[in-house]
Amino acid sequence: MSVSEVTKSAEARMRKSLENLQLELAKLRTGRAHAGILDHVQVEYYGSMVPVSQIGNVTVVDARTLSIQVWEKNMAGAVDKAIRESDLGLNPQAMGEVIRVPMPALTEERRRDLTKVVRGEGEGAKIAVRNLRRDANEQLKRLVKDKTISEDDERRGQDDIQKLTDRYVAEVDKLVSQKEAEIMKV
Questions:
Q1: Same domain, 117 and 95
Q2: Distance (Å, whole) CA 65 – CA 60
Q3: How far apart are CA 186 and CA 180, in angstroms?
Q4: The predicted structure's pLDDT at residue 169
Q5: Domain shared by 65 and 116, yes or no
Q6: Phi, then psi, of 174 in degrees rounded to 5
Q7: What is the pLDDT of residues 21-34, one digit of tens each?
Q8: Domain boundary residue among 46, 81, 102?
Q9: Is 183 helix (H, G, I), strand (E, B) or coil?
Q10: Helix (H) or strand (E) holding 16
């Protein structure tokens, strides 16, 4: 393994951490409707648990309303029940094959709580990136010990990995501040 391979591997894993943060932040409700909010809601479908998106079409009607068009009429009740029992605090309204999900407005206190959650998610992502930096630096030390690379190559590799780490930490900070601004916007 070479220095460039260690660096590429670390960068790929840091990118995955950033993508995971984006997915986690997308799940947080901001008072605006978006189809991704129901991604983790599971519905029992003939004995197995599946996401709502596999039972019907989830669309955004307007800024505060989602609509779910179920493909099988008898599944509307199960989808309605699953959304009510989820931790999202939503109150769906079933109308035959269509379920409307209005998004309630967020209170100021709830907005502050959500920003704390966002910061926590961001800190978790930063820790993951720093752990990946540590792992990459350990790999470089192993390569020096095995006499595969020189100490100068190790130092250059560590500098490159530090630059990557700084870049991804800055990206995490940017995502967190964007999400906080989105949550606090009334």
A1: no
A2: 6
A3: 12
A4: 96
A5: no
A6: -65, -45
A7: 998 888 776 667 77
A8: 102
A9: helix
A10: helix 3-27
